[in-house]
Amino acid sequence: MNTGTNDNEIISRVLRGEQSLYADLVKRYQNFVFTITLRYTTSREDAEEIAQDVFVKAYRSLADFRGESRFSTWLYTIVTTTCITFLRKKKLDTHSLDNEKVFETVESTDSGFKANQVEQKSKIQMVNKAIRLLSPDDAKLINLFYQGEQSLEEIGQIMGLEPNTVKVRLHRARQRLKDKMETHFVQEVKDIMN
């Protein structure tokens, strides 16, 4: 595949019988999918299992992709419904904020990492924990806009809202996220500001 091939071209070719090209879509979106699944579960193994399930479901439903929105928008919908279904089946208990698994990623990283890289991961984890404290709709908005890099119009399509409504709700969700961070992560926020 040449690097200029867009998602819709790959999908057309896969649907015409070039199934091996689906691996290119998986490579292109594996980090996107895995990052979102990690926001639903703190277990790396569960996130990997969910991500694999997402790509299987997406492959089986590829003929249903109409190209009216970006592939990532369509894929995000599959990711969120798969995560919710997985969590319902597993009936996970809510993890407390002092759960040691939250720090697994930083502790398991190579000791050769520079201090500022570890600090950056810690900040990202703090933000992810704060996002988990939000309502599902607020978390979805934040994830779609910042992680999924979806436009207001695309978020509107996913959530069944007008773009202006999305803009207002996103503004409110960011404010609630800020409030959660200032309430639950007082020291961490102070450290970031210094």
Word description of this protein:
The chain is mainly alpha-helical. It folds into 2 domains: 1-94, Orthogonal Bundle (Rna Polymerase Sigma Factor, Chain: A); 110-194, Orthogonal Bundle (Arc Repressor Mutant, subunit A). Helix content is 71%, strand content 0%. It contains 10 helices and no strands. It has helices at 7-15, 22-40, 44-60, 71-90, 104-108, 115-132, 136-147, 152-159, 163-184, 186-193. Helix 3 crosses helix 4, helix 7 crosses helix 9 (163-184) and helix 8 (152-159) crosses helix 9 (163-184). It is globular, with a radius of gyration of 18 Å. The relative contact order is 0.10.
| Mean pLDDT across every amino acid position | 78
**What fraction of the residues are assigned to beta strands by DSSP?**
under 5%
User: What is the overall silhouette?
Assistant: globular
Query: How many discrete domains?
Result: 2
- Taking all Cα atoms into account, the compactness measure Rg is 18 Å
Number of helical regions? 10
Q: Main beta sheet: strand number and arrangement?
A: none
Secondary structure: number of strands = 0
How would you name the CATH homologous superfamily of the largest domain? RNA polymerase sigma factor, region 2, helix turn helix motif
